Amino acid sequence: MHFSSLSLSLTALAIVSPCIAHPQPVLRQDDSQTRADTIKSAFSHAWDGYLQYAFPHDELHPVSNGYGDSRNGWGASAVDALSTAVIMRNATIVNKILDHVATIDYSKTDSTVSLFETTIRYLGGMLSGYDLLKGPASDLVSDSSKVDVLLTQSKNLGDVLKFAFNTPSGVPYNNLNITSGGNDGATTNGLAVTGTLALEWTRLSDLTGDPTYGDLSQKAESYLLNPQPKSAEPFPGLVGSNINIATGQFADAQVSWNGGDDSYYEYLIKMYVYDPKRFGLYKDRWVAAAQSTMQHLASHPSSRPDLTFLASYNNGTYDLSSQHLTCFDGGSFLLGGTVLNRTDFINFGLALVNGCHDTYNSTLTGIGPETFSWDTSSIPASQQTLYEQAGFYITSGAYILRPEVIESFYYAWRVTGDETYREWIWSAFSAINDYCRTGSGFAGLTDVNAANGGGRYDNQESFLFAEVMKYSYLAFSEEAEWQVQTGGGNKFVLNTEAHPVRVST
Ligand code: DMJ
Description:
mainly alpha, 3-stranded antiparallel sheet, 47% helix, globular, binds 1-deoxymannojirimycin, Seven-hairpin_glycosidases
């Protein structure tokens, strides 16, 4: 059920207080160290289980102690774990992963290759490992030729994948057959999967000196930055969800920050952090999108007008529902706010962070659901009380080890220095450690609002290593070059899979 634009804008007139966190006393250094050690040991627990039962396959099945190859069988968990192992300074795991990367043949797989997933997990993981191990963590590997392999393999992977952009417009296919050079015959590609390539592919060009990769990704992005037809941009900066591969024209005007659209907006500001000289237009588009989002998508549940969530919009109609995936939004506003010195963006980011915290804080497990709604026309009777108290009801109670809420808490902590956000990270991490931990790793939950989390999903996504463990650990570990900085002082920028990429020099 949808609400009209008038009713949303009236709801949106309720002023949210940006002042949402109650400052906590500063955490003692000892306590911070103890928490960092606990997170490191959880990472090692997951790594040991993966190594014993699943390596070199893509992921562990943490209930049955089996394995899966959902990411083409190249060892996704190993490559996704690399940058976290580096940051945790675990030389044994780092060297094991480097030995594995040297053996991968990226030209071979039996299954369809996702350009997006392969870019953010494998290419991002290897380039980040390269930047970290050639830079601030160079002492972890004594044989530097093992680190050079990360760049060689990144180039190999880029060369395997680059045929995806060989279309009349340059907008790539996402689902590829790398053996035949074919694709799934799609006529459109999604906003996020098209717009979440530029960081990794540009970094590959900058490190190899071959402009091909960056040029391909930026040509594809050019259609997103200059959307046609004009109707595909119903509010400045907010664009449709699907792009015609033949023409580069948008095929619709549905706007949201939800899955499918999300990391397009994330990369607009991250490209500016990567290189403000080359990517000023990306920043301008992020600013336009951020302002329009505050004006047109901010929505406050009738039962909890103090909370802020993001609605989505299509042709005059608002959908009052959101997702765990969307909760990266607070982090994006906080990064943009601090880099551009915009207090309004920071305050709005904190309001979004507070809304996503509410989705964690209000369930029986202390973990938030995959999808939720605040549309009062379809509240299930069994969730009326939840809606009255928490301002949302659950439309999917699954939790599949996603990072976005902890990710945004991390940005809130780095930008404000307010200990509240570290406490929120610790609570979320502790809930995951309590409810998702199995004998060999971590499993997803079927119902975050059941006393025991419901059933377990027998799958450990590789982003558990790359993101959940990393963002949690970063909050309690030492100052370092790879930490997000306030203002414009970032030396690294985290890709959407939380792999730190060195900014352009
Ligand atoms: C990750 O692969 C990335 O964070 C991506 O941007 C969204 N989906 C997962 C985590 O939920």
